Amino acid sequence: xxxxxxxxxFEKLNRFYIGLTxxxxxxxxxxxxxxxxxxxxxxxxxxxxxxxxSFEVLNYSQGRQLELFIKRMKSSKFIKSLKEDKVKxxxxxxxxxxx
Length: 99
Hints:
Blueprint (H helix, E strand, L loop, with lengths): L2 E8 L4 E7 L3 H9 L16 E8 L2 H14 L2 H9 L1 H10 L4
Antiparallel strand pairs: 1-2, 1-3
């Protein structure tokens, strides 16, 4: 089963959302846009989330560790650097290969 860590971006709020899914990325984003999740879900605040970055991971455990790591960084600067710096992107993925 394919598993993805994904990062959505909403320009109007200048905010990122980091998530984990076993659905296809297209299906997951459509679910967010159609507001299929709880009204308390952060993604309900916006209506035009765009996929900013995604990581295909080996399994759910690895994905969860990666998702939590990115969330703990609490930095849009860090997230932007992942997209711009392929070496950093690869090193982050390699860091979580053992999970």
